[in-house]
Amino acid sequence: MKDTPPRNTLRWKSLSLCPLALLALPIAAFAQTSDEDEVYELSPFVVDGSEDNGYRAANTLAGTRMNAQLKDTAASVSTFTKAFLEDLGATDLESVMNYSASAEKSVGDTSPNPGGNDNVDSKPGYNFRVRGFQSSRARNFFRYDLPVDVFNTERLDESRGPNSILFGVGSAGGIVNVATKQAFTNQDFTRLQFQLASENGRRGALDLNKTLIEDKLAIRFNLLKDSSDGWRYSTNEEDERIHAAATYKLAEKTTLRAEFELGAVDDVVARPYQITDDYSQWDGTTFASGVWTTPPGARRSQWWGGTVPTYVSNSGTVVDTRSQMETINSHNPISDFPNYSAWWNAASGDTNVIPESIIPASVNVAGPGAKRELDYNTHTFIAEQQLGDLFVELAYHRTESDWVSHWTESSSLQIDPNENRIDGSPNPFVGQYYLEGRWDKRTRNISSDTYRATLGYKLDTERMGTHNFVAMWSKDDQIQAFTNETLAITDEDIIGSWGATPDNARYRPAFRQYFTELGDWENFHIPSWETRINGAPTLSNNALYDDKTVSMDWIIRDQNQNDDRVDTDSILLGAQSYWMDKKLVTTLGYRSDKVENLTHDTVRGDDGYYMIDYDSPNLQDFDSETITAGGVYHLTDTFSLFYNRSENTNYPNFLISVLPEDLTRPIQTGTPEPPQGSGWDAGIMFQLMDNKITGRLTYYEAEVMDTENWSYGWNITTSRENGILNLLVDRDFIDQETADIRYIDSNGTLFDEESSGWELTSTANLSKNWRLNFNASSTDRIRFNAYADAERLLDSSKEWVLGLDGINGSTEVGSSPTPGEPGETVDQFYDRWMSDLLFYRRGEEVKRGLREFKYNLFTAYDFTEGKAKGLTIGGGLRYQSANIVGVDGEGNILKGDDLSYVDLMLRYRFKQKLFGKAATSIQLNVNNLFEKEGLIPVRYAPVQGENYSNPDIVDAATFHDPQSVRLTFNVHM
Question: Which of 560, 625, 636, 761 is the most exposed place for a label (fewest CB within 10 A)?
């Protein structure tokens, strides 16, 4: 068993500064002895936002890693300025990305089996797709996977597309980079913010900049305390962070910068799905008088033998529910299936969501047990030096994070139709509603150290143009530890008597709560795992352990554990060149990334529990070389043409194992090859009305090859291949030794994706007091080659089996319900395998989750004279077309619901200063002003054995964004 790891103590790693400090000494010495008469230029590696005007940003680092004007940047980049963030009343990344060109929130809706993992239990922080692909996050151009809050954010840059030259290893959708607030050496200020919001939201923030030595040394502190309840019952969040930054101009051409942040985020979250119905088909009057009696609309809960422990919170006991009846909504009659087990499997996926008129969307089935805890700290140190026309930046960045999440599978609402317990005693809860689920815990401990050296050189020639060259070397060393645990019975005598491995489902009690009627929604949820912590329940109704006190603890659930080291070494060379009197601007870049992943096998220890075998290191590595080329041609001062082609490589999922290209046995499954992205953008940029309106119209195409996939990967590869081998051994066609050589261990497969579309992005400062941001996009994303590796395995397996002595297509091999059927022949087995593969492929290749069109506009107007002076009025419109859910039997696309919201902003800046020196303002932001509500289908019920969905049955549904109201008080001194 593994003890619960302690939460991060937010240690200060001061010793890690020593190498950087020593490295900076010779640079500082050079600066102090260099020619004082040389012209000093601002660092090309910094954009501080001082040249931003309203919503329009002039410069960015997100195109070339050097300070460049957006009008000269070929890559598709959008910048969200400080003014825009303030008007929006933004507090987190999600509120900003609502107004991006083509981003959409990811809730697991691209999968045929949505689970909401993307924003609940996979990783902390908001997850989103851009141009249909997953996107990444960065901070100050360092990889950053933690939740983003704007309390210390100066501005955001969104780079769309697979631009590997800039970011190296990353997602094909692009990346959002957060530029943090830095200390200013030429001013002092204090800014206080207090906010009251919906759902008991309370937020306080401090931004303090203090000059210690004028024009040389300054410090800046940003503090945050934020708490709120969620709009769904039991959900809440507590957020405490502190960010400190310092700037020291050691000499005229030497600047040292440092920052660090400590944070603790605790929350209770809910999967973004409406509860499903597994009770309404029961007639409500027919009860099960014995184990094998099947009332209408019911089935046996477990058809195999063995004990099924269920913790009932109402009585505080653990009971055995083996082969008990449970209500079930099955839209596929049992008569359509040759045996009970096949119908049971079909009925397991046969549910529909419960209307809000019966159970409101605010119900959180997981309840208060779905807790998450995140502790993190980051620190960064940067030294900048100008040596004539050469600029040098040396940087070190460290991040540590400890993250724990508790989660339970989504529960449907059921009714207990059993008159008796398994031992024949009366069931005190007969006819009552209930919810149940098993509790798991996921722990991630990640630490990373990044070292980066960047050189920038400006070459200005009279005849051959002006050129900015950049060279960068970086080394990123990351340790990733992941533990997947489950709450299980741990009594040694029980485990020994039941005779299974400790992680077997028979030791994983379901947590069940009964309800006599619907209502009391705050307490309508699965019992928390904490009830097990606070008291040992009793095991009853079991012949071996009647009335025995039961001990439970978190144990390793499966083999998906890791304690890996991922080292990435990168080299970047780039050039931005200005030709033809700066009419033509070209960008050319080369990048090389070398990644090494050191992992270990997961094995069972002598006590039967899974453990990481540190004596079996596995080193996996891959190299990636990419080239980016782009150009901007300024036709006039108003219009410019641009083209950019880019590539990238992403990290593979190191917890997934897939089949290799070579299927020669024995097969060595392993981590998939890194996904490869490539794409191009082309279009026209415009600067209208004396630069008051700027923007670009872009057409793009992109693809990602070899994306790993969990969905049904084990079921369509390992279970089928190993299953047929077991059947052949059972029928004496092969011996066990032959089967052992051919067994595989793969839990995933691969697919490819393509995306194309257009984007219109624009910002406008129509006057000194009127600003506007407008975006529109169309996205078409397709998946293909899903389960192609599984199909190769199927063909290879069938060819080998038909080559065995005494076997042909009509040879009977089926001898058990799983994975074969009684009397099934070789041809029938492989036909069923192929039929299932095609079924899963069709489900995977549907454009699930895609919202083709997105439009948004946000504007604000300041009244600067008259009675309304000091008042700002603004707001926004957000629209995304209906999500694709599936296809029906005639091939028609099935859709969910569009997203259309109206947002409002009002602000008043008081004329009278507080205490004669503090400028004050009050601001109101209302999102979803007209309270659009309702359920959004994300899956329709699959038709058993077919490749389409039933549009009459909503199988899974998510929600519209709730209305939120925020009242903010700002004090500036």
Answer: 636
